[in-house]
Specification:
This protein is α+β, with helices and mostly antiparallel strands. The protein contains 9 helices and 5 strands. Strands 2-1-3-4-5 form a 5-stranded mixed sheet, with helices on both faces.
């Protein structure tokens, strides 16, 4: 049975319009993106097959181009559409955080950093440089590393903060393993960076560790 023959309140598009996007399953959201199925399978059936193949929605969204395009029902056109959607989401959040007090809106920062650091197969260390009103001056990815470590140089972080006339910073890095729990090295690095920046009256407002769908705040956990 094709989706058009389903009861109206069970069709993904109609369900989204009636109940909102949050009411849809991962397969239903993906089906709307796919638009059509393949011979013998509806878009929802195809979406379920793809989620099983890639493990989950995150696995699909972060798949390498060749892996993504080789899956039945996908291809270069879908890959470019997906990348465009992801980039629009990032730019939307760029606008959303543009004039906000980020120190006092940790959930907004969490959403932003989860999207920004989502899907990297290697560690990335990034920084939100803030002005005296805790508004963002610049988001910048400062260092990139390997699967499980990144070399972060405090001197370079200080130099960049001074160049931008930052009053405070929010650090973030990802764990490609998926765990958002800070390691002992993460805590040691944060202490070293905090000590270096305090010499120039630059505050470390927080440090987020981004894992699989989560972002842990060191401030919320009592480490800052």
């Amino acid at each position: 049975m094709s989706i058009s023959e389903w009861p109206a309140d069970e069709r993904p598009r109609e369900k989204l319009l009636q109940r909102g996007a949050a009411a849809l399953t991962d397969a239903e959201l993906l089906a709307i993106f796919l638009r059509t199925g393949v011979q013998g399978k509806s878009a929802v059936d195809l979406a379920r097959d793809l989620l099983e193949r890639f493990g989950d929605l995150r696995g699909l969204l972060t798949a390498e181009r060749d892996q993504f395009c080789s899956a039945k029902g996908l291809g270069p056109a879908k890959y470019t559409q997906l990348q465009a959607v992801m980039e629009m989401s990032r730019r939307y959040l760029d606008v959303e955080i543009g004039d906000r007090d980020l120190v006092n809106t940790p959930e907004l920062v969490r959403r932003y950093l989860k999207l920004r650091l989502h899907g990297y197969p290697y560690e990335v260390f990034a920084c939100l440089f803030l002005d005296t009103r805790s508004r963002v001056i610049l988001y910048e990815e400062l260092f990139r590393g390997t699967l499980n470590q990144t070399s972060v140089h405090p001197r370079e972080v200080v130099r960049r903060a001074l160049a931008l006339n930052a009053a405070a910073v929010i650090f973030a890095h990802n764990h490609p393993s998926g765990s958002a729990d800070p390691s002992s090295d993460d805590l040691s690095l944060t202490r070293n960076l905090k000590t270096a920046l305090e010499l120039f009256d630059i505050a470390v407002a927080d440090h987020f560790v981004v894992g699989d769908g989560r972002a842990a705040s060191l401030r919320e956990r009592g480490y800052l």
